[in-house]
Design goal:
The protein is built from 11 helices and no strands. The protein is an all-alpha fold and about 240 residues long. The chain has 2 domains: about 80 residues, Arc Repressor Mutant, subunit A (Orthogonal Bundle); about 140 residues. Helix 2 crosses helix 7 and helix 7 packs across helix 9. The longest helix is centred in the middle third of the chain and has 25 residues.
Length: about 240
């Protein structure tokens, strides 16, 4: 992952898959009156403030209890300005979610490419995701907990995002040497279990402890493919991969 904290950049809409995240705080409020700033700057500033406000408000209240009024108050913008940028609360949430998900996806991919063997690729990708979620508790809740509570298109988008990790795991099927082939639902079951464990920790206020799950999660993932002994050996190795 890029150096420094990604939270400010993510909340301001700055996280992109092709760009590193950098330290940043929420966008400052625009000065009142005739400021002479370019319209493009004003528009971008407003959008960033709205997304920042959504992340903060959802972290405090949860998605379902958050209203457009809460968001506009936190962003210091009018309802009219909000609807100039987003069709509704769901669209605003999805904009924030996609930026964070894209960043995590790109970071995991970059980490995995640093290793030639599939087991190490899995470990590197998972370590990168856990590190990001542990360092950004508000964004961890945004992208792992709230989509399930929100339901609808947000939950559907979250399920689609989780398929990225399913594809990473399916690449390991040639590693399987057992007599019986792996069940078709193996990867979906593994990802579902991983997500459930991560959500449990975030919901309990233990986001900062997420990286401690890495050995157990790696062992859980690799066991069906490599067998329990080899999976445990790789999971307990001290050489933790990084994406920095």
């Amino acid at each position: 992952m890029a150096k420094g904290t990604a939270k400010g950049a993510a909340k301001r809409g700055k996280i992109k898959a092709e760009e590193p995240a950098s330290p940043a705080d929420a966008s400052p409020r625009l000065p009142a009156g005739r400021h002479g700033l370019p319209r493009e700057f004003i528009t971008q500033n407003q959008r960033e403030r709205i997304i920042t406000a959504l992340v903060d408000t959802v972290a405090e209240r949860g998605y379902n209890a958050t209203t457009v009024a809460h968001i506009t108050k936190a962003a210091s913008v009018s309802r009219r300005t909000f609807y100039e940028h987003f069709a509704d609360k769901e669209a605003c949430f999805l904009a924030a979610y996609e930026m964070v998900a894209d960043h995590i996806r790109a970071s995991m991919g970059a980490a995995a490419k640093s290793f030639g063997e599939w087991p190490q690729q899995v470990r590197a990708a998972l370590a990168t995701m856990l590190r990001f979620l542990a360092s950004e508790p508000e964004l961890a809740r945004l992208c792992m907990v709230e989509p399930v509570a929100a339901g609808g298109e947000i939950a559907a988008r979250h399920r689609a995002t989780m398929q990225d990790f399913v594809r990473i795991l399916k690449a390991g099927r040639p590693e399987h040497s057992g007599e019986r082939p792996l069940p078709e639902a193996t990867e979906e079951t593994l990802v579902g279990g991983i997500v459930s464990l991560i959500v449990r920790e975030i919901s309990a206020g233990r986001s900062a402890e997420l990286e401690k799950l890495l050995p157990d999660l790696v062992e859980l993932i690799l066991s069906p493919y490599l067998g329990t002994e080899e999976a445990e050996r790789l999971a307990r190795t001290d050489a933790a991969p990084t994406a920095d």
